[in-house]
Amino acid sequence: MTEQHRPIRSFVLRQGRISEAQQRAYEQHQARYVIDYAPQLLNLDVAFGRQAPKILEIGFGMGGATAHIAAEHPENDYLGIEVHTPGVGALMRLLDAGNIDNTRIIQHDAVEVLNHMIAPASLDGIHIYFPDPWPKKRHHKRRLIQPPLVALLASRLKPGGYLHLATDWQEYAEWMLEVLRGEPQLKNTAEDYAPKPDYRPETKFERRGINLGHGVWDLVFRRV
Ligand SMILES: C[S@@+](CC[C@H](N)C(=O)[O-])C[C@H]1O[C@@H](n2cnc3c(N)ncnc32)[C@H](O)[C@@H]1O
Which of 65, 145, 62, 60 is nearest to 111 (CA)? Predict the structure, then answer.
């Protein structure tokens, strides 16, 4: 079965509550920041209006870390993918408030975006921070990090491009390490887990995990 027909998704769409401010931001800033999903290749340089390193992020949540990284690195362009509407509104507010112009958003399942919109060997980096751990064994199949997806991610990286994952769930960290080590297109930058790269700030879910007494594991692999 190909990825685009994958029936099991890594998220459950609970639209939850969108605050008035998020809704207003959504309507006001959509045209500036949102790229509509379409099952056709996206020319990233055209989408961002320049040639610059392109970093993709999957599941940015409320977007705090995304906006922080983008503001600190104006030399890069960031494409954030998230399915959760309040999070998309929240990130747009942060981008507007910080006058951050090197970030764009696609609100859609990242697996489909990767399959249809992102060209092979077109990304300089990929960030996936604190993806849902789906702790119950019968839910492990919903985990985003699976061998076929990791092969797809690796194929979208340029040679030398990096894949940076972080989790606060030890058993998922071990699973990630095993899956990434098993992908022949990728090479670990560390012996096993990597020191936290300086550019990654603490994320919202990371703080939640730390408050629960969890550890944090970063993994940084490069495309060979
Ligand atoms: C646990 S949250 C982490 C959010 C953020 N990275 C952080 O650390 O605070 C995981 C996020 O990934 C999003 N997500 C999960 N699967 C996704 C997919 N296939 N495509 C896009 N977003 C996805 C969820 O909606 C959720 O907001």
Answer: 145
